[in-house]
Amino acid sequence: MTTLAASVFQRLSRSNARLLGARDLGAGFGLAAWENAQDRVRYEETRHHVLSLYTEDGTKSRRVDRQVAVGHPGALSLMPQGASSEWQIDGRFRFVHLYIPDAELRAFAAETLDRPPAAVVLPEVTFADDPVLAGLLGQLARAEGVLASRGIQVELLHHLLTAPGWGQAASAPRRGGLAPATLRRLRARIEEELDQPLRLADLAATAGLSEFHFQRAFRASTGLSPRAWVERRRMVRAEVLIAEGQPLAEVAAACGFAHHAHLTRAFRKAHGVAPSVWRAGL
What we know:
This protein is an alpha+beta fold. The chain folds into 2 domains: 3-162, Sandwich (Jelly Rolls), CATH 2.60.120.10; 180-280, Homeodomain-like (Arc Repressor Mutant, subunit A, Orthogonal Bundle). It has helices at 7-13, 102-113, 131-142, 146-162, 180-192, 200-207, 211-222, 226-243, 248-254, 260-271, 275-280; strands at residues 18-26, 29-36, 39-43, 49-56, 61-63, 76-79, 85-89, 93-100, 125-128. The strands form 2 sheets. Strands 1-2-8-4-6-9 form a 6-stranded antiparallel beta sheet, sandwiched between helices. A 3-stranded antiparallel beta sheet has the order 3-7-5. Helix 3 packs antiparallel against helix 4 and helix 6 crosses helix 7 (211-222). The longest helix has 18 residues, at 226-243. InterPro entries: AraC_XylS_family_regulators, Homeodomain-like_sf, HTH_AraC, HTH_AraC-typ_CS. One of its GO terms (molecular function) is sequence-specific DNA binding. This is AraC family transcriptional regulator. Residues 184-281 form the HTH araC/xylS-type domain. Keywords: DNA-binding, Transcription, Transcription regulation.
C-alpha cells in the first residue's frame, strides 16, 4: 500500500516488531498497530509525520538518543517529518502509529485554520500525556468505515495544530497569498464543481487575478498548486463514494474523472491498488 510505504513503517517491518493491523485511511494517511519486544530500532529522516500512542505497557521502552523518561501506557510521541531517533525496547508492549503526510497537514492548516503552509511546524515530542489526543488516536484505531475515520482525523489534526505543546506556536503572518475570504470562495467553488473540468482560467477569474499570479498566490496560501488541490479533493470525494459502495463509473463521473479507467489509474497511483481492491480491504 502506497500510504504505508512510510519509512517508519518499513523500518519496523524489518525489526522484531509484529504488525497487528494496518489501514490505508485515504489522502495519504495510514494507521498501523504494532507489538514489539527485546529490540533496538533507529528511524532515519522519517518521510511522514508520525504520531505514536503506547496502548499496552511501554514501561521498558526508552529513547536512547535523548535523555527522557521511559514510556508508559497512554504516552504520546511525535516524530516530525525528517526527524531521526533511536529506541531501546527491553520488554513487550503495544503501540499505534498514525502516519501523516506533510502536504496534507499543511493543506488542512490552510483549509481549516487559514494558516499559511510555511507556518506549520510540529515539535518533536517524546512520552507526553494528552488525554484528548490519546483518546482521538485510540478512537481512530477502532473506527470502522472511511466516514467515521475521517471525522476523527479532522478533530485529531485540529488538536495537533492548535493545542498547547503541539503545533499551537506555529503561526506567522500570511505573505503573498490569497485573502481568506477569496480562498474560502475558491474552495467552495471547487467542492461544488468537482464533477466538472475546473479550468485554471475560471478559478483565476473567481480570485480576480491573472493565471500566473493566481497560481503563485494559491500555492502560497495552501502549499499546493491549484491543479494538485483539485486532484486532492477529487480523490478524497472518490474515497468516500467508493467506501459507500457506489459503482465506479458513477464515482468517476461525480468526481470529475474522464472515465472509469481514468479514476482507476489515479486511484492506483495514490493508493498502490485498484479501487475495488481498496474497497474490499475496508
